[in-house]
Amino acid sequence: MTSRRQFIKKGLLSGFSTLSLTNLSKSAHFDELRDATSDEELFALIRNQLHIPKERLYLNTGSLGPSPMVVTDAVHAMMQQLEKNPAIENWGDLGTKMEKVRTKVGELINTDPEDVILTRNTTEGLSLISQSLKLNKGDEILTTTHEHGGGEVGLEYMAATQGAVIKKLQIPVPATSKEAVIEAVVNNITPKTKVVMLSHVNTLTGLRMPFDEISKITKPKGILLIADGAQAAGLISVDVKSMGVDAYAASGHKWMLGPKETGFVYWSKELQQKINPVFTSSGFGSYSASSGTRNVAVISGLGVAIDWLNLIGKEKIESRCLEIRSYCLSRLKELKGIVIISPQVDSLSTGIVSFTLKEGENRVIAGELAKEDIIVKVLPKYNGIRISCHMFVSKLDIDRFIKSFSQLV
User: Fold this and answer.
1) Structural domains in the chain?
2) pTM above threshold 0.85
3) What is the DSSP letter of 62?
4) DSSP letter for each residue of 231-274
5) Which residue in 164, 261, 287, 313 is deepest, having the highest Cβ count within 10 Å?
Protein backbone atom coordinates (compact mmCIF):
# COMPACT_ATOMS: atom_id res chain seq x y z
CA MET A 1 0.00 0.00 0.00
CA THR A 2 1.25 3.47 -0.88
CA SER A 3 1.85 5.60 2.20
CA ARG A 4 0.47 9.13 2.43
CA ARG A 5 4.06 10.52 2.27
CA GLN A 6 4.87 8.45 -0.81
CA PHE A 7 1.61 9.56 -2.42
CA ILE A 8 2.33 13.24 -1.80
CA LYS A 9 5.95 12.91 -2.96
CA LYS A 10 4.86 11.12 -6.12
CA GLY A 11 2.22 13.76 -6.81
CA LEU A 12 4.62 16.66 -6.28
CA LEU A 13 7.28 15.19 -8.55
CA SER A 14 4.80 14.38 -11.28
CA GLY A 15 3.72 18.01 -11.22
CA PHE A 16 7.20 19.12 -12.27
CA SER A 17 8.56 18.20 -15.68
CA THR A 18 12.28 17.60 -16.06
CA LEU A 19 12.58 21.08 -17.52
CA SER A 20 10.84 22.59 -14.49
CA LEU A 21 13.39 20.97 -12.21
CA THR A 22 16.10 22.38 -14.43
CA ASN A 23 14.67 25.87 -14.05
CA LEU A 24 14.68 25.46 -10.26
CA SER A 25 18.33 24.42 -10.38
CA LYS A 26 19.14 27.24 -12.76
CA SER A 27 17.42 29.76 -10.50
CA ALA A 28 19.42 28.55 -7.49
CA HIS A 29 22.73 28.93 -9.33
CA PHE A 30 21.74 32.32 -10.70
CA ASP A 31 20.43 33.58 -7.37
CA GLU A 32 23.70 32.63 -5.71
CA LEU A 33 25.57 34.94 -8.08
CA ARG A 34 22.99 37.71 -7.73
CA ASP A 35 23.43 37.67 -3.95
CA ALA A 36 27.21 38.24 -4.11
CA THR A 37 28.14 41.35 -2.12
CA SER A 38 31.48 42.00 -3.84
CA ASP A 39 33.33 41.11 -7.01
CA GLU A 40 35.73 38.87 -5.12
CA GLU A 41 32.83 36.95 -3.64
CA LEU A 42 31.21 36.78 -7.08
CA PHE A 43 34.25 35.26 -8.78
CA ALA A 44 34.78 32.84 -5.91
CA LEU A 45 31.19 31.69 -6.32
CA ILE A 46 31.73 31.36 -10.07
CA ARG A 47 34.74 29.11 -9.40
CA ASN A 48 32.60 26.98 -7.09
CA GLN A 49 29.99 26.52 -9.81
CA LEU A 50 32.49 24.75 -12.07
CA HIS A 51 33.10 21.01 -12.12
CA ILE A 52 36.87 21.49 -11.94
CA PRO A 53 38.18 19.87 -8.71
CA LYS A 54 39.14 22.37 -6.03
CA GLU A 55 42.79 21.35 -6.13
CA ARG A 56 43.09 21.72 -9.91
CA LEU A 57 44.40 24.95 -11.44
CA TYR A 58 42.94 25.14 -14.94
CA LEU A 59 44.75 27.65 -17.16
CA ASN A 60 43.72 26.32 -20.58
CA THR A 61 40.32 27.78 -21.37
CA GLY A 62 41.75 28.83 -24.74
CA SER A 63 41.61 25.16 -25.74
CA LEU A 64 38.35 24.18 -24.04
CA GLY A 65 36.46 25.98 -21.33
CA PRO A 66 34.84 24.31 -18.30
CA SER A 67 31.05 24.52 -18.41
CA PRO A 68 29.40 25.61 -15.15
CA MET A 69 27.05 23.23 -13.36
CA VAL A 70 23.99 25.18 -14.44
CA VAL A 71 24.86 24.41 -18.08
CA THR A 72 25.60 20.72 -17.64
CA ASP A 73 22.54 20.30 -15.43
CA ALA A 74 20.37 21.95 -18.07
CA VAL A 75 21.79 19.83 -20.90
CA HIS A 76 21.29 16.65 -18.87
CA ALA A 77 17.71 17.57 -18.03
CA MET A 78 16.90 18.46 -21.63
CA MET A 79 18.41 15.21 -22.88
CA GLN A 80 16.12 13.33 -20.50
CA GLN A 81 13.16 15.38 -21.64
CA LEU A 82 14.04 14.67 -25.27
CA GLU A 83 14.35 10.92 -24.84
CA LYS A 84 10.95 10.60 -23.17
CA ASN A 85 9.25 11.63 -26.41
CA PRO A 86 12.00 12.23 -29.01
CA ALA A 87 10.13 13.30 -32.13
CA ILE A 88 7.62 15.51 -30.33
CA GLU A 89 10.21 17.20 -28.11
CA ASN A 90 12.83 17.63 -30.84
CA TRP A 91 10.52 19.67 -33.02
CA GLY A 92 8.39 20.97 -30.17
CA ASP A 93 9.36 22.60 -26.87
CA LEU A 94 13.08 21.85 -27.13
CA GLY A 95 13.21 22.84 -30.77
CA THR A 96 11.72 26.21 -29.82
CA LYS A 97 14.37 26.68 -27.12
CA MET A 98 17.10 25.84 -29.60
CA GLU A 99 15.85 28.44 -32.07
CA LYS A 100 15.89 31.11 -29.32
CA VAL A 101 19.65 30.63 -29.02
CA ARG A 102 20.03 32.54 -32.31
CA THR A 103 18.42 35.56 -30.67
CA LYS A 104 20.71 35.26 -27.66
CA VAL A 105 23.77 35.08 -29.90
CA GLY A 106 22.55 38.08 -31.88
CA GLU A 107 22.25 40.12 -28.70
CA LEU A 108 25.68 38.94 -27.55
CA ILE A 109 27.47 40.15 -30.71
CA ASN A 110 25.08 42.99 -31.64
CA THR A 111 23.44 41.71 -34.79
CA ASP A 112 20.05 40.56 -36.02
CA PRO A 113 19.29 36.91 -35.16
CA GLU A 114 18.34 36.20 -38.78
CA ASP A 115 22.01 36.75 -39.68
CA VAL A 116 23.17 34.08 -37.20
CA ILE A 117 23.74 30.40 -37.97
CA LEU A 118 24.27 27.88 -35.18
CA THR A 119 27.23 25.60 -35.84
CA ARG A 120 29.32 22.97 -34.09
CA ASN A 121 32.46 25.10 -33.80
CA THR A 122 34.46 27.95 -35.33
CA THR A 123 36.00 25.72 -37.98
CA GLU A 124 32.60 24.73 -39.32
CA GLY A 125 31.45 28.34 -39.44
CA LEU A 126 34.49 29.46 -41.42
CA SER A 127 34.37 26.41 -43.68
CA LEU A 128 30.78 27.14 -44.68
CA ILE A 129 32.08 30.36 -46.24
CA SER A 130 35.11 28.81 -47.88
CA GLN A 131 33.18 26.01 -49.54
CA SER A 132 30.84 28.33 -51.44
CA LEU A 133 32.72 31.63 -51.93
CA LYS A 134 33.69 32.11 -55.56
CA LEU A 135 37.20 33.35 -56.32
CA ASN A 136 39.24 33.51 -59.50
CA LYS A 137 42.58 31.91 -60.15
CA GLY A 138 45.31 34.14 -58.75
CA ASP A 139 43.04 35.99 -56.32
CA GLU A 140 44.80 36.53 -53.01
CA ILE A 141 43.62 35.52 -49.55
CA LEU A 142 45.47 37.46 -46.87
CA THR A 143 45.95 36.04 -43.38
CA THR A 144 48.75 35.81 -40.80
CA THR A 145 51.36 33.27 -39.77
CA HIS A 146 49.63 32.98 -36.39
CA GLU A 147 46.24 31.58 -37.36
CA HIS A 148 44.67 28.43 -35.95
CA GLY A 149 44.56 25.39 -38.22
CA GLY A 150 40.78 25.36 -38.02
CA GLY A 151 40.67 28.76 -39.66
CA GLU A 152 43.32 27.90 -42.21
CA VAL A 153 41.69 24.72 -43.50
CA GLY A 154 38.93 26.63 -45.30
CA LEU A 155 41.45 28.98 -46.90
CA GLU A 156 43.49 26.01 -48.07
CA TYR A 157 40.34 24.52 -49.57
CA MET A 158 39.69 27.69 -51.58
CA ALA A 159 43.27 27.70 -52.77
CA ALA A 160 43.16 24.04 -53.80
CA THR A 161 39.78 24.15 -55.54
CA GLN A 162 39.79 27.60 -57.11
CA GLY A 163 43.43 28.43 -57.68
CA ALA A 164 43.45 31.25 -55.14
CA VAL A 165 46.72 32.20 -53.46
CA ILE A 166 47.16 32.31 -49.70
CA LYS A 167 49.42 35.11 -48.52
CA LYS A 168 50.57 35.12 -44.90
CA LEU A 169 51.83 38.23 -43.16
CA GLN A 170 54.01 38.36 -40.08
CA ILE A 171 52.52 40.21 -37.11
CA PRO A 172 55.18 41.74 -34.81
CA VAL A 173 55.92 39.50 -31.80
CA PRO A 174 55.23 40.95 -29.40
CA ALA A 175 53.11 43.65 -31.01
CA THR A 176 53.92 46.98 -29.40
CA SER A 177 51.25 49.24 -30.89
CA LYS A 178 47.96 49.16 -32.72
CA GLU A 179 49.53 51.21 -35.51
CA ALA A 180 52.22 48.57 -36.10
CA VAL A 181 49.58 45.85 -36.46
CA ILE A 182 47.47 47.88 -38.87
CA GLU A 183 50.55 48.79 -40.90
CA ALA A 184 51.50 45.12 -41.22
CA VAL A 185 48.06 44.36 -42.68
CA VAL A 186 47.94 47.38 -45.00
CA ASN A 187 51.42 46.72 -46.38
CA ASN A 188 50.35 43.26 -47.52
CA ILE A 189 47.14 44.22 -49.29
CA THR A 190 47.46 44.27 -53.08
CA PRO A 191 45.02 44.81 -55.97
CA LYS A 192 44.63 41.01 -56.03
CA THR A 193 43.51 40.77 -52.40
CA LYS A 194 39.91 39.55 -52.27
CA VAL A 195 39.69 38.08 -48.76
CA VAL A 196 41.29 38.98 -45.44
CA MET A 197 40.88 36.47 -42.61
CA LEU A 198 42.23 37.40 -39.16
CA SER A 199 41.69 36.22 -35.60
CA HIS A 200 39.83 38.67 -33.38
CA VAL A 201 41.96 37.38 -30.50
CA ASN A 202 45.07 35.54 -31.61
CA THR A 203 45.30 31.96 -30.40
CA LEU A 204 49.09 32.10 -29.86
CA THR A 205 49.67 35.49 -28.30
CA GLY A 206 46.23 36.78 -27.27
CA LEU A 207 46.62 39.87 -29.47
CA ARG A 208 43.35 41.74 -29.99
CA MET A 209 43.09 42.60 -33.68
CA PRO A 210 41.92 46.20 -34.32
CA PHE A 211 39.12 45.24 -36.71
CA ASP A 212 37.38 48.63 -36.48
CA GLU A 213 40.34 50.30 -38.18
CA ILE A 214 41.13 47.45 -40.56
CA SER A 215 37.56 47.30 -41.90
CA LYS A 216 37.81 50.96 -42.89
CA ILE A 217 40.64 49.93 -45.19
CA THR A 218 39.17 46.73 -46.62
CA LYS A 219 35.56 47.81 -47.16
CA PRO A 220 36.25 50.63 -49.70
CA LYS A 221 38.39 48.16 -51.66
CA GLY A 222 35.62 45.55 -51.78
CA ILE A 223 37.72 43.08 -49.79
CA LEU A 224 35.85 40.47 -47.78
CA LEU A 225 36.82 40.72 -44.09
CA ILE A 226 36.40 37.55 -42.02
CA ALA A 227 37.00 37.24 -38.28
CA ASP A 228 37.94 34.07 -36.45
CA GLY A 229 36.37 34.77 -33.07
CA ALA A 230 37.15 31.46 -31.38
CA GLN A 231 39.26 33.09 -28.66
CA ALA A 232 37.16 36.25 -28.34
CA ALA A 233 33.53 35.42 -27.59
CA GLY A 234 33.12 35.22 -23.84
CA LEU A 235 36.51 36.83 -23.20
CA ILE A 236 35.94 40.31 -24.62
CA SER A 237 32.89 42.23 -25.81
CA VAL A 238 32.08 41.53 -29.45
CA ASP A 239 30.22 43.99 -31.68
CA VAL A 240 30.24 42.83 -35.28
CA LYS A 241 28.61 46.04 -36.50
CA SER A 242 31.27 48.34 -35.07
CA MET A 243 33.97 45.92 -36.20
CA GLY A 244 32.72 46.18 -39.77
CA VAL A 245 33.33 42.49 -40.54
CA ASP A 246 31.54 40.54 -43.26
CA ALA A 247 31.65 37.32 -41.24
CA TYR A 248 32.36 36.33 -37.65
CA ALA A 249 32.68 32.73 -36.48
CA ALA A 250 33.13 31.55 -32.90
CA SER A 251 32.90 28.51 -30.65
CA GLY A 252 30.67 28.22 -27.62
CA HIS A 253 32.96 25.78 -25.83
CA LYS A 254 35.95 28.02 -25.12
CA TRP A 255 35.63 31.32 -23.24
CA MET A 256 31.82 31.20 -23.37
CA LEU A 257 31.98 28.04 -21.23
CA GLY A 258 29.17 26.45 -23.21
CA PRO A 259 28.63 22.78 -24.07
CA LYS A 260 31.19 21.12 -26.30
CA GLU A 261 30.49 21.10 -30.05
CA THR A 262 28.59 24.38 -30.09
CA GLY A 263 29.29 27.55 -32.02
CA PHE A 264 27.89 30.19 -34.35
CA VAL A 265 28.70 32.22 -37.40
CA TYR A 266 27.44 35.66 -38.44
CA TRP A 267 27.20 36.63 -42.10
CA SER A 268 26.51 40.18 -43.22
CA LYS A 269 23.56 40.59 -45.55
CA GLU A 270 26.00 41.56 -48.32
CA LEU A 271 27.89 38.29 -47.88
CA GLN A 272 24.65 36.31 -47.87
CA GLN A 273 24.11 37.42 -51.46
CA LYS A 274 27.44 35.87 -52.47
CA ILE A 275 27.44 32.47 -50.76
CA ASN A 276 24.95 29.66 -50.26
CA PRO A 277 26.40 26.39 -48.96
CA VAL A 278 24.19 23.30 -48.78
CA PHE A 279 23.94 23.56 -45.00
CA THR A 280 22.06 26.89 -45.21
CA SER A 281 20.32 26.41 -48.56
CA SER A 282 16.99 25.91 -46.74
CA GLY A 283 17.51 28.88 -44.44
CA PHE A 284 19.47 30.01 -41.39
CA GLY A 285 17.13 28.49 -38.80
CA SER A 286 18.54 26.27 -36.09
CA TYR A 287 16.76 23.41 -37.84
CA SER A 288 15.99 23.26 -41.54
CA ALA A 289 15.62 20.68 -44.30
CA SER A 290 19.26 21.23 -45.27
CA SER A 291 20.69 21.15 -41.75
CA GLY A 292 18.94 17.96 -40.73
CA THR A 293 18.34 16.90 -37.15
CA ARG A 294 20.34 18.86 -34.58
CA ASN A 295 21.43 18.16 -31.01
CA VAL A 296 18.73 20.28 -29.41
CA ALA A 297 19.82 19.70 -25.82
CA VAL A 298 23.45 20.68 -26.38
CA ILE A 299 22.65 23.69 -28.57
CA SER A 300 20.02 24.91 -26.10
CA GLY A 301 22.67 24.53 -23.41
CA LEU A 302 24.65 27.24 -25.19
CA GLY A 303 21.70 29.53 -24.56
CA VAL A 304 21.90 28.74 -20.84
CA ALA A 305 25.63 29.55 -20.89
CA ILE A 306 24.88 32.91 -22.51
CA ASP A 307 22.24 33.66 -19.85
CA TRP A 308 24.80 32.85 -17.15
CA LEU A 309 27.45 35.09 -18.74
CA ASN A 310 24.93 37.90 -19.17
CA LEU A 311 24.07 37.73 -15.48
CA ILE A 312 27.72 38.33 -14.64
CA GLY A 313 28.09 40.99 -17.36
CA LYS A 314 30.34 41.14 -20.43
CA GLU A 315 32.18 44.24 -19.25
CA LYS A 316 32.78 42.77 -15.79
CA ILE A 317 34.12 39.54 -17.29
CA GLU A 318 36.47 41.36 -19.66
CA SER A 319 37.71 43.63 -16.87
CA ARG A 320 38.33 40.69 -14.56
CA CYS A 321 40.23 38.74 -17.24
CA LEU A 322 42.44 41.76 -17.94
CA GLU A 323 43.06 42.25 -14.22
CA ILE A 324 44.25 38.65 -13.78
CA ARG A 325 46.24 38.84 -17.02
CA SER A 326 48.02 41.99 -15.79
CA TYR A 327 48.87 40.31 -12.51
CA CYS A 328 50.11 37.21 -14.32
CA LEU A 329 52.22 39.39 -16.61
CA SER A 330 53.77 41.22 -13.66
CA ARG A 331 54.70 37.94 -11.96
CA LEU A 332 56.14 36.47 -15.17
CA LYS A 333 58.37 39.54 -15.57
CA GLU A 334 60.08 38.52 -12.34
CA LEU A 335 61.42 35.39 -14.07
CA LYS A 336 64.59 35.30 -16.18
CA GLY A 337 64.15 32.11 -18.20
CA ILE A 338 61.32 33.27 -20.46
CA VAL A 339 60.45 35.79 -23.19
CA ILE A 340 56.91 37.18 -23.17
CA ILE A 341 55.35 37.18 -26.67
CA SER A 342 51.92 38.57 -25.78
CA PRO A 343 51.21 42.28 -26.27
CA GLN A 344 51.71 44.39 -23.17
CA VAL A 345 49.89 47.54 -24.34
CA ASP A 346 46.30 47.63 -23.11
CA SER A 347 44.72 48.31 -26.50
CA LEU A 348 46.01 45.00 -27.88
CA SER A 349 45.77 42.88 -24.72
CA THR A 350 43.30 40.23 -23.59
CA GLY A 351 43.17 37.54 -20.91
CA ILE A 352 45.82 35.44 -22.68
CA VAL A 353 49.48 35.59 -21.68
CA SER A 354 52.04 33.58 -23.67
CA PHE A 355 55.79 33.23 -23.37
CA THR A 356 58.66 31.22 -24.82
CA LEU A 357 61.29 29.30 -22.91
CA LYS A 358 64.95 30.22 -23.23
CA GLU A 359 65.94 26.74 -22.07
CA GLY A 360 64.14 23.46 -21.61
CA GLU A 361 61.22 21.93 -23.50
CA ASN A 362 57.71 23.25 -23.05
CA ARG A 363 56.07 19.82 -23.15
CA VAL A 364 58.32 18.55 -20.40
CA ILE A 365 57.59 21.55 -18.21
CA ALA A 366 53.85 21.34 -18.91
CA GLY A 367 53.98 17.68 -17.93
CA GLU A 368 55.68 18.51 -14.64
CA LEU A 369 53.08 21.18 -13.94
CA ALA A 370 50.31 18.68 -14.69
CA LYS A 371 51.72 16.42 -11.97
CA GLU A 372 50.87 19.27 -9.58
CA ASP A 373 47.41 19.56 -11.16
CA ILE A 374 48.28 22.78 -12.98
CA ILE A 375 46.98 22.67 -16.55
CA VAL A 376 48.55 24.91 -19.22
CA LYS A 377 48.73 24.96 -23.02
CA VAL A 378 51.96 24.29 -24.90
CA LEU A 379 52.76 26.30 -28.05
CA PRO A 380 54.91 24.09 -30.32
CA LYS A 381 55.57 26.92 -32.79
CA TYR A 382 57.58 28.89 -30.23
CA ASN A 383 58.50 26.30 -27.60
CA GLY A 384 56.12 28.37 -25.56
CA ILE A 385 53.36 28.15 -22.99
CA ARG A 386 50.00 29.91 -23.02
CA ILE A 387 48.11 30.93 -19.89
CA SER A 388 44.36 31.56 -20.10
CA CYS A 389 43.28 34.02 -17.41
CA HIS A 390 39.53 33.53 -17.32
CA MET A 391 37.39 35.12 -14.63
CA PHE A 392 37.46 32.08 -12.36
CA VAL A 393 41.27 32.28 -12.04
CA SER A 394 42.44 34.21 -8.97
CA LYS A 395 45.66 36.00 -8.11
CA LEU A 396 46.38 33.24 -5.60
CA ASP A 397 46.07 30.78 -8.46
CA ILE A 398 48.63 32.76 -10.45
CA ASP A 399 50.94 32.79 -7.43
CA ARG A 400 50.67 29.01 -7.22
CA PHE A 401 51.48 28.66 -10.92
CA ILE A 402 54.48 31.02 -10.68
CA LYS A 403 55.85 29.21 -7.64
CA SER A 404 55.70 25.82 -9.36
CA PHE A 405 56.85 27.09 -12.75
CA SER A 406 59.80 29.06 -11.35
CA GLN A 407 61.25 25.83 -9.95
CA LEU A 408 61.27 24.30 -13.44
CA VAL A 409 63.08 27.01 -15.44
Assistant:
1) 96-308 (3.40.640.10), 314-406 (3.90.1150.10)
2) yes
3) T
4) TTBTTB---HHHHT-SEEEEESSSTT---SS-EEEEE-HHHHTT
5) 164
